[in-house]
Specification:
The chain has 82 residues and is mainly beta. The protein has one domain. It contains two helices and seven strands. The protein has helices at residues 47-52, 57-60, and strands spanning 2-8, 11-12, 18-19, 21-29, 38-46, 65-69, 75-80. The chain has a three-stranded antiparallel sheet with strand order 1-4-5. The longest helix is centred in the middle third of the chain and has 6 residues, at 47-52.
Length: 82
Protein backbone atom coordinates (compact mmCIF):
# COMPACT_ATOMS: atom_id res chain seq x y z
CA UNK A 1 0.00 0.00 0.00
CA UNK A 2 1.21 3.48 -0.83
CA UNK A 3 0.84 6.30 1.68
CA UNK A 4 -0.67 9.32 -0.06
CA UNK A 5 -1.38 11.48 2.99
CA UNK A 6 -2.25 11.84 6.64
CA UNK A 7 -4.50 14.10 8.72
CA UNK A 8 -4.71 14.86 12.45
CA UNK A 9 -7.86 13.32 13.95
CA UNK A 10 -8.49 13.50 17.70
CA UNK A 11 -11.71 12.33 19.36
CA UNK A 12 -13.33 11.45 22.69
CA UNK A 13 -14.63 7.99 23.52
CA UNK A 14 -18.09 7.47 25.04
CA UNK A 15 -16.52 7.50 28.51
CA UNK A 16 -14.80 10.84 27.81
CA UNK A 17 -11.27 9.59 27.21
CA UNK A 18 -9.46 11.72 24.66
CA UNK A 19 -7.71 9.78 21.89
CA UNK A 20 -5.13 11.64 19.81
CA UNK A 21 -3.94 10.35 16.47
CA UNK A 22 -4.00 10.53 12.69
CA UNK A 23 -5.85 9.10 9.72
CA UNK A 24 -3.35 7.59 7.29
CA UNK A 25 -4.58 7.56 3.67
CA UNK A 26 -3.46 4.68 1.43
CA UNK A 27 -3.85 3.42 -2.14
CA UNK A 28 -3.15 0.11 -3.83
CA UNK A 29 -3.74 -1.32 -7.30
CA UNK A 30 -6.84 -3.43 -7.81
CA UNK A 31 -6.00 -6.99 -8.86
CA UNK A 32 -6.89 -7.45 -12.57
CA UNK A 33 -9.24 -10.39 -11.99
CA UNK A 34 -11.20 -8.30 -9.46
CA UNK A 35 -11.48 -5.06 -11.42
CA UNK A 36 -9.41 -2.15 -12.66
CA UNK A 37 -7.78 0.91 -11.19
CA UNK A 38 -6.72 1.83 -7.69
CA UNK A 39 -8.47 1.26 -4.37
CA UNK A 40 -8.23 3.65 -1.44
CA UNK A 41 -8.57 3.25 2.29
CA UNK A 42 -7.59 4.92 5.50
CA UNK A 43 -6.29 3.68 8.81
CA UNK A 44 -6.55 5.38 12.17
CA UNK A 45 -3.31 5.39 14.15
CA UNK A 46 -3.23 6.72 17.70
CA UNK A 47 -0.20 8.73 18.76
CA UNK A 48 0.75 5.73 20.95
CA UNK A 49 0.61 3.36 17.95
CA UNK A 50 2.74 5.80 15.95
CA UNK A 51 5.31 5.97 18.77
CA UNK A 52 5.25 2.17 19.31
CA UNK A 53 6.02 1.67 15.59
CA UNK A 54 8.70 4.40 15.58
CA UNK A 55 6.94 6.20 12.73
CA UNK A 56 7.44 9.69 11.33
CA UNK A 57 4.32 10.14 9.19
CA UNK A 58 5.82 12.98 7.16
CA UNK A 59 8.53 10.62 5.84
CA UNK A 60 5.98 7.95 4.85
CA UNK A 61 4.10 10.03 2.26
CA UNK A 62 4.84 8.58 -1.17
CA UNK A 63 6.30 5.36 0.26
CA UNK A 64 5.05 1.77 0.13
CA UNK A 65 4.22 0.22 3.51
CA UNK A 66 3.10 -3.10 4.93
CA UNK A 67 0.48 -3.21 7.66
CA UNK A 68 -0.13 -6.21 9.90
CA UNK A 69 -3.32 -6.51 11.92
CA UNK A 70 -4.15 -7.96 15.34
CA UNK A 71 -6.97 -10.43 16.02
CA UNK A 72 -9.46 -7.54 16.31
CA UNK A 73 -8.55 -6.35 12.77
CA UNK A 74 -6.79 -3.25 14.14
CA UNK A 75 -3.42 -2.14 12.70
CA UNK A 76 -0.66 -3.68 14.80
CA UNK A 77 2.67 -3.11 13.00
CA UNK A 78 3.48 -0.72 10.18
CA UNK A 79 6.77 -0.84 8.33
CA UNK A 80 8.30 0.14 4.98
CA UNK A 81 7.88 -2.35 2.14
CA UNK A 82 11.12 -3.71 0.71
Amino acid sequence: MKVVGYRKSDFRTKDGTEIKGYNLYLTEPIVAEDGKGTSTEHLYLSEKKIADNNLDLSTLVGKEIVVTYNKWAKPERIFLSK
